[in-house]
Amino acid sequence: MDVAIFNLERDHRDLKDQLIEKFKDVLERGEYILGDEVRTFEEAFATYIGVKYAVGVGSGTDAIRIGGLACGLEKGDKFVTTPNTYISTAMSLSIHGLQPIFCDIELTTYNMDPQMLEDTLKKEKGIKLCIPVHLYGHPCMMDEILDICKRHGVMVMEDACQAHGSLYKDKKVGGLGDIGAFSFYPTKNLGCYGDGGIITTNSEKIYKKAEMLRIYGQSSKHVHEIEGFNSRLDEVQAALLSIKLKKLDSWNKKRRHIAWLYKRELDDAPVVLPHEAPWAYHIYHLYVIRVKERDKLMGYLKEKGITTLIHYPTPIHLQHVYKKLGYEKGAFPNSEKASEEILSLPMFPSMKEDEVLYVARSIREFYGLKV
């Protein structure tokens, strides 16, 4: 049996006719940039997250970039995030001359460790923004992070690019800090058909600045108050996302069921399974296990026709592009340990039970366990 890590064609099969009809509708109306479809989707997504405002942009990377600049950060300012995330969390802002400072993770959820954040903010003066990442779909410990940041006068931007619909104490992530950033990359729990992203906030000031930044710093047509970018969620993507948003919660429930099956089948295996805190609603953008023999297991599963990936094999502080920051190997031991042991198993809403069982039982076979 061949099992892909994602299967977008199968995920979208039931919606295919609706998506094609909506595409035709947008095509025939001839309005492609910042029209009714974008406004409708922004309003719907803001309501879904539970915030006042949402600003559609060109990608998740741009959501972080424009979000950070909309918070007032300028060249030379510092921001803190974890090294255990995709590099765009840091690069979105560092490319504009902002300095990333890193804080290690805790190894239960692979998210920012609040105590280490406290230590970092005490040690490193001048940090303006904290970017906790709700990695793999599990929320960060936001009460602690928000309290620490408030005491230190630091704003909070949630990187929720992997956490569409994830809950922290029954509240949607992306609406807990000063600002949230989401990606609609095709493989996300809510993905479009190309690149896309969105910014969420309750701040009218941040909202208005983000709106200007996404369209050349323009406050009204041909009136440019600040330097900005060309980063707009287009009409086609917004229209298709509006259809898919209605399916997001049911798709997340299917992911959670798949995670339950994996746990049932692998609970006695010598692997570290994903953890869900009692206050969390994990939406399993990725199903990530941790194993000592990661590369051998990955090779074995490949032979069995099972695709796996590593999210992410090199912590950001050890990437060549950030060598200039002066971090050495060993600086963030938890992030480094995770990068050597994590393995993402197949996970997508339309994954069939026999596929889940095949993956799980192949792992059991690798360890010589009863199948």
Count of the domains: 2
What's the SSE pattern? HHHEHEHEHEHEEEEEHEEHHEEHHEH
Bulk shape: globular
Radius of gyration: 21 Å
Give the termini distance in whole angstroms: 16 Å
SSE inventory with pairings:
Elements: H1 8-11, H2 16-29, H3 36-49, E1 53-57, H4 60-70, E2 78-81, H5 88-94, E3 99-102, H6 114-123, E4 127-131, H7 142-151, E5 155-159, E6 167-168, E7 171-172, E8 179-183, E9 197-201, H8 204-213, E10 218-220, E11 223-224, H9 235-245, H10 248-266, E12 280-281, E13 287-290, H11 294-303, H12 333-341, E14 342-345, H13 353-366
Parallel strand pairs: 2-3, 2-4, 4-5, 5-8
Antiparallel strand pairs: 1-9, 6-7, 6-12, 8-9, 10-11, 13-14
Helix pairs in contact: 2-9, 3-9, 4-5, 4-8, 6-7, 10-13
Summarize the structure.
With 371 residues, the protein is α/β, with parallel strands linked by helices.
Provide a descriptive summary of the structure in words:
39% of the residues lie in helices and 14% in strands. The chain has 371 residues and is an alpha/beta fold. It has two domains: 8-102 and 110-245, Type I PLP-dependent aspartate aminotransferase-like (Major domain) (Aspartate Aminotransferase, domain 2, 3-Layer(aba) Sandwich), CATH 3.40.640.10; 248-366, Aspartate Aminotransferase, domain 1 (Alpha-Beta Complex). It has a seven-stranded mixed sheet with strand order 1-9-8-5-4-2-3, sandwiched between helices. Strand 4 (127-131), helix 7 and strand 5 (155-159) form a beta-alpha-beta unit. It is globular and about 70 Å long. The two termini are 16 Å apart.
